[in-house]
Amino acid sequence: MTILKWLFFTVIFVPWLASSSGKQFSRNSQLRQDSVITNQGNVLFNEEVKLQPRSKRETALSVDQDSSMLFQPADAPDDSAPPPAEEDASELPTCLLCVCLTGSVYCEEVVPDMTAVPTLPKETAYFYARYNKIKKITAKDFADTVTLRRIDLTGNMISDIEDGAFSKLAMLEELSLAENRLVKLPMLPSKLTSFNANFNQLGTKGVKATAFKKLTQLVNLFLADNILEAIPQIPESVRTIHLQNNNITIVSADSFCKGNDTYYIRSNLNEVRMDGNPVILAKYPNSFTCLKSLPIGKYH
Ligand SMILES: *[C@@H]1O[C@H](CO)[C@@H](O)[C@H](O)[C@H]1NC(C)=O
Ligand SMILES: *[C@@H]1O[C@H](CO)[C@@H](O)[C@H](O)[C@H]1NC(C)=O
Q1: How do 240-242 and 99-101 pair as beta strands?
Q2: Which one, 63, 80, 177, 237, has least CB within 10 Å?
Q3: Which of 153, 194, 192, 186 is nearest to 171 (CA)?
Q4: Sign of the torsion angle spanned by Cα atoms 116, 121, 124, 129
């Protein structure tokens, strides 16, 4: 046990202290951190990988078993580690429960259960909290970390998001709320390029037609495996939209194209998934004339 604590202290705690008390992080660890972020990002916001979340997760679990012993000693979270005098104590628990690197906080499948967003160190840019038991996002959770660029809350139990929880994050580019229990979308910040709300309980009442209208930089919009009955307005910038496995029964001439402008070409949008919906796309030939390729879905 003493060895475990010592390991924990030297492997996690000392590097964290070094990173948070100055910018003299070596080039090596900076490189390492960048590659971690890149790998994570590719997994997180790549829909194809996310199609088998459970099995992926289990694989990750068994592979991680050894290292997670190191990162989470049985007696970790409470009074076992002496707080150093010169540090801000309020930041300690998060970085003992989670792995903190400069700018990034990784809290994945945290033990004991994480049921709320932890206090994030100032200037956190990347926050990963996948597969925990977070139920609610409050307006305070991210109020002091306006530096956030990516938040991944995939696989929690979130059903409630307070007004303003995300909308003030002016630098936020990627947000995943996939595999939660949302019935209603939160207000989204305008710089988003990627938004993932696959596998929720979003119906048409919870997703206003204009919900994405102001997101002029949005590229990827994932709303698959919900219970949507209508297609929300899709910003011009969007390249990929996933609406498969919803309850959509109709497509209008304005859903993707401009009903009154037959010369309009929608050049950005090149991947539309509509499979797994009741709608028969062949009934709406005039709805896709502006697209370079037809949506994936039922045609007869
Ligand atoms: C799908 O839509 C139909 C009406 O078009 C409705 O009766 C049905 O309950 C909906 N299914 C779900 C799962 O919401
Ligand atoms: C087409 O419809 C849009 C929205 O309904 C409107 O803003 C636009 O002026 C119309 N264009 C023409 C040429 O009628």
Answers
A1: unpaired
A2: 63
A3: 192
A4: negative
pLDDT at 185 over 50: yes
- String of DSSP letters for 55-93: HHHHHHHHHHHHHHHHHS-TT-SSSSSPPPTTS-GGGHH
Burial group, residue 197, by CB count within 10 angstroms (0-12, 13-18, 19+): buried
Distance CA 270, CA 288 (A): 12
Q: Is 249 in the pocket of ligand 1 (CB under 6 A)?
A: yes
Identify each DSSP E strand in the chain by its residue range.
99-101, 104-106, 126-128, 136-137, 150-152, 160-161, 174-176, 194-196, 220-222, 240-242, 271-273
Q: How many residues does the chain have?
A: 300
**Residues whose beta carbon lies within 6 Å of some atom of ligand 2:** 260-261
pTM of the model: 0.72
Q: What does the pLDDT average to over 12-17?
A: 44
pLDDT band at 112 (very low <50, low <70, confident <90, very high): confident
**Burial grade of 4 (CB within 10 A; 0-12, 13-18, 19 or more):** middle
d(CA 226, CA 277): 10
Longest dimension (CA), the chain: 73
Distance CA 142, CA 164 (A): 9
Give me the mean pLDDT over the 263-276 stretch.
Answer: 95
